[in-house]
Amino acid sequence: MKKTKLSPSLTVLLYGPPGTGKTSLTRAFSKKYKIPMCVVESDRLVSPLLGDTIKNIRNVVELAADVAKENGSFVLFFDEIDAIGSERSNIHEVGEIKRAVISFLQVIDKVNYEGIPLAIFGATNHQHQLDSAIWRRFTFHLNFDFPNYELRKEIIESFLEKIEKADIGIDDTIYKRLDNEYKEIKEIHKNLEAKLGRNISEFEDNLLWNEIEKKKQLEGFLKLTLGYSGSDIERGTRVALFKVIQTGILTYNIFYNSLELVGGTAVHVKRQDILSNNRKLGTRSEKYKASRPNTSGPPEL
Length: 301
Ligand SMILES: Nc1ncnc2c1ncn2[C@@H]1O[C@H](COP(=O)(O)OP(=O)(O)OP(=O)(O)O)[C@@H](O)[C@H]1O
Ligand SMILES: [Mg+2]
Fold this sequence. Notes:
Elements: E1 10-15, H1 22-32, E2 37-41, H2 52-71, E3 74-79, H3 94-113, E4 118-124, H4 132-137, E5 140-143, H5 149-165, E6 169-170, H6 172-196, H7 207-214, H8 221-224, H9 230-243, E7 249-250, H10 252-262, H11 271-281, H12 284-290
Helix pairs in contact: 2-3, 5-6, 5-9, 6-7, 9-10
The protein binds adenosine-5'-triphosphate (ATP) and magnesium ion.
């Protein structure tokens, strides 16, 4: 970027429902590329005192810019970025909201213009409330959604791996039943795609899940966790671990019941409700797409 004389600054907006990995991805980016990071809780920038929000925004970006220049690179992460300049923020004066947004835009533009090697990440799960001028300042827009069954399998396995590393026994039936369930769903998925002559996603209408519901004997982790975020699966795993403190062995039933106990975040409802509501509301993916601000900004990756 430096050689092309384009600014080396990087701006990435991560948006999507809670617990789907936005913060984790940013932390992983900073860790992987060994670039130090500062996390800003955006709502803490917002002050009821006139003018203070603007000062806070300026100060934090200018400080990060200085560190970036000194260090060669730096990540500034605005978590819950919608707190700046949205109706959700606790700024009550409309003029002050506008000034806060403008001040944010100005400092970002300055970083860009001066070619400061600063990466600015922003995360929100209220993307529809985010000011569209802020939205457009980000070069990359990454949409996070609830994991599909393939990713849920990987997430579940990654937690099982962690448990094994901690020397806690895992009942073999967990792996066997997870594998069998995955194969069956995959088979149903493939057959359905062959029948329709096109690719379908798990969240497209109820197509796949109607087929799965027909197979009454199919009950397992992947079916249970439709509408769960990675964070919900993590919470279920934690509950299970508390339950096995005495025995030191994680059984299928304990794991299943713990995941069931925590429930999924999607629409805060039971799976049955999601299935029956999908048609009425549009799929979750459609819903999240629909809630994106209408902007003529850069194309999404
Ligand atoms: N795709 C994923 N793979 C593995 N683990 C995940 C994934 N998504 C979420 N998790 C787990 O959930 C935890 C919480 O995720 P994270 O805090 O990154 O979500 P978030 O999108 O930032 O949520 P929020 O919008 O509420 O801030 C992570 O620490 C991780 O353990
Ligand atoms: Mg987060």
